[in-house]
DNA sequence: GATATTGTTCCGGTAATCCCGGAATCCGTC
DNA sequence: GACGGATTCCGGGATTACCGGAACAATATC
C-alpha cells in the first residue's frame, strides 16, 4: 500500500491524522468529501477521524464545513515559547523595523528548512510576504544563508542532499560549490544578502545569532530593491542587523 | 478501560496522540519516561507515538528531550487566518493600544471558552497576562461577558452548564441569574466591564463585534485598577472600545 | 413540489494495527 | 568496568481501524 509519507513512523493512524489536518489546513474550510478527495481516505473512515478531531476539540464543524480550531494556535504559542530566543528577540525586531522602516523577520532552522517565527513591520513596509510558521528553503534568502553559514559542514551537506537547491528565480544559487563559497564569505563579513534570489525584485540583509558557536536563528531586513540599494543596502543595513544580533547575543548571555 | 477524554470520538489512537502532544506541551521539554509518567502510556507504546510524531516532523528530539515543533506554529497561523476577523482587527488593536497606553486584546469564543487571538501592548502596559491561543472562562472578564451578551440564550445556558461559573476571585459572578442580568445590561450599554473578577487588582472594558446579530469576537482594554478608574474607566475607555468595534464592523461590512 | 442526485452518517465483519511485556541495547555514573 | 536507569527493539495476541454498503439527510433538477 503506497504511503505519501514514506517510512515516517510506525503508527499509521497518526500519519493519517496529520494528512487529514494538513488537508484541512490547505483547503482552509472544507466538507467531508472535499477532504476525502484531498487525502484519498474513504469517506466512512475519514468520518471517524473528523469525529474524533471534533471530539478532542481540535477542529470545528460549522454548518457542513470543517476548519482548524484555535487549539492549534495554543500549541503554536507553546512551541514558540520553548525556542530559546523567542521571548528575547521581539523588542529588538520592533526597534529595527522602526529604525529602518522595512519589514524585519526572525527565522530559525528546523528539519533543514527555514521557519519564520517573528515579524515586525516598519511604516514603509509592504504587506508581509511570509506567514508566521511558514517554511522556506534556506539557500535562497539572506536569513537562510546566514544560518547555513554557521551550521556544521556535514549538516549543510545533508540539508542540501535532502532539499536540493531549487531555483526560485534566475538569481537563486543552484550550485553547491557556489553556495559553499558564499557561506564562507558570509562567515567572514558577518552578514548575508539576498538579491532577488527568492522573489524577483526583493532584497534582504541578514545576520545570524551565534552563541558559543551554535546558531540560534537569524534576523533579516527585507524590502523591494528600489529602496534597498546603494550604501543603504551595502553598508547601513548590514551594520544595523549586525549590531542588533550582537545585542541579542549579549542580552541572551547576561540575563 | 477508563479514558480521560470520555466519549470524544471513535479513534482511540487519535485521542491518545493528542494526549501525548498536550503532555509535551505541558512539560515544555521532556524525555520519554517523563511523558510516559504524564500520560500513563507504556513506554514501549509511547515510543512508537513519539517516533511517528518525529517522522512527520511535528516534534523535535534533541539530545534526549522532546519538544513541539514549529509545524504547530504553522497550523496555528492557518487556524487564525480562517477566522473572519483576524486580518481586519490587527491595525485597530494597535491604534487602540497606542491611544490608551494599555494592553488590548482580541478575543473569540470557541467550544464555550474564550480564546485570546491577538494582542497589542501600549507603552504603559505591563507584560502580557494571557498568551495567544490561551483559553479562559467567559463569565469572569469583560471580553467574555461582551460575547456572552450577544450569543443566543440557549447557547449561553449550555455554556454555563458545561463550564459552570467557577469563582476566580471574590468578585467573580457565580450566580446564573446575576450573570444574565448583567448580560442584559451589557447589551443595553454596548460594553462590558471587569472589576477584579478574573484577577485581583485588574480591570477591563470590552465591546463585542456584532454583525447582523452574530458575535464575531470582542475587543478588550485591560490594566491595573490604579490606572483604570474614574471617568477614564467609566466613560473614556468604554467610548474608545465601542468606537473601535464599530469601525471594525463597518470595515468588515464594506470591504 | 416531487424526484434525482449528491453528500453524510451509521453499521458490521475482517484484516490490520495498535499495544504491551519482556529482552536487548544504550547511556551516564559511581 | 560494572551497575542502574532509560531507551529501543521484538513478537504475538487483542483491539480497533478500515471500508463496503445501507440508511439517512441535504441539495439540485425538472
From TrEMBL, chains A, B:
<dbReference type="Pfam" id="PF01614">
    <property type="entry name" value="IclR_C"/>
</dbReference>
<keyword id="KW-0238">DNA-binding</keyword>
<protein>
    <submittedName>
        <fullName>IclR family transcriptional regulator</fullName>
    </submittedName>
</protein>
<dbReference type="Pfam" id="PF09339">
    <property type="entry name" value="HTH_IclR"/>
</dbReference>
<dbReference type="GO" id="GO:0003700">
    <property type="term" value="F:DNA-binding transcription factor activity"/>
</dbReference>
<dbReference type="InterPro" id="IPR029016">
    <property type="entry name" value="GAF-like_dom_sf"/>
</dbReference>
<dbReference type="InterPro" id="IPR014757">
    <property type="entry name" value="Tscrpt_reg_IclR_C"/>
</dbReference>
<dbReference type="GO" id="GO:0045892">
    <property type="term" value="P:negative regulation of DNA-templated transcription"/>
</dbReference>
<keyword id="KW-0804">Transcription</keyword>
<dbReference type="InterPro" id="IPR005471">
    <property type="entry name" value="Tscrpt_reg_IclR_N"/>
</dbReference>
<dbReference type="InterPro" id="IPR050707">
    <property type="entry name" value="HTH_MetabolicPath_Reg"/>
</dbReference>
<dbReference type="InterPro" id="IPR036388">
    <property type="entry name" value="WH-like_DNA-bd_sf"/>
</dbReference>
<feature type="domain" description="IclR-ED">
    <location>
        <begin position="71"/>
        <end position="254"/>
    </location>
</feature>
<dbReference type="InterPro" id="IPR036390">
    <property type="entry name" value="WH_DNA-bd_sf"/>
</dbReference>
<dbReference type="GO" id="GO:0003677">
    <property type="term" value="F:DNA binding"/>
</dbReference>
<keyword id="KW-0805">Transcription regulation</keyword>
<feature type="domain" description="HTH iclR-type">
    <location>
        <begin position="11"/>
        <end position="70"/>
    </location>
</feature>
Amino acid at each position: 500500500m503506497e504511503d505519501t509519507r514514506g517510512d515516517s513512523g510506525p503508527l499509521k493512524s497518526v500519519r493519517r491524522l496529520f494528512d487529514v489536518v494538513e488537508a484541512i489546513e490547505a483547503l482552509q474550510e472544507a466538507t467531508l468529501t472535499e477532504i476525502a478527495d484531498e487525502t484519498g481516505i474513504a469517506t466512512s473512515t475519514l468520518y471517524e477521524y473528523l469525529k474524533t478531531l471534533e471530539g478532542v476539540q481540535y477542529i470545528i464543524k460549522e454548518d457542513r464545513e470543517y476548519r482548524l480550531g484555535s487549539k492549534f494556535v495554543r500549541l503554536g504559542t507553546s512551541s514558540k515559547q520553548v525556542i530559546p530566543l523567542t521571548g528575547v528577540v521581539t523588542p529588538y525586531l520592533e526597534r529595527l523595523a522602526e529604525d529602518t522602516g522595512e519589514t524585519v523577520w526572525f527565522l530559525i532552522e528546523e528539519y533543514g528548512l527555514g521557519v519564520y517565527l517573528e515579524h515586525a513591520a516598519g511604516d514603509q513596509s509592504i504587506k508581509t510576504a511570509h506567514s508566521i510558521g511558514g517554511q522556506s528553503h534556506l539557500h535562497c534568502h539572506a536569513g537562510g544563508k546566514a544560518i547555513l553559514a554557521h551550521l556544521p559542514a556535514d549538516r549543510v551537506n545533508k540539508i542540501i542532499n535532502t532539499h536540493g537547491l531549487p531555483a526560485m528565480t534566475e538569481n537563486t544559487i543552484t550550485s553547491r560549490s557556489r553556495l559553499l563559497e558564499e557561506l564562507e564569505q558570509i562567515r567572514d563579513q558577518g552578514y548575508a544578502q539576498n538579491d532577488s534570489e527568492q522573489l524577483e525584485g526583493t532584497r534582504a540583509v541578514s545576520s545570524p545569532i551565534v552563541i558559543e558557536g551554535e546558531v540560534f536563528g537569524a534576523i533579516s531586513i527585507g524590502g523591494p530593491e528600489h529602496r534597498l540599494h546603494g550604501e543603504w543596502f551595502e553598508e547601513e543595513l548590514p551594520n544595523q542587523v549586525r549590531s542588533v544580533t550582537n545585542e541579542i547575543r549579549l542580552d541572551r548571555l547576561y540575563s
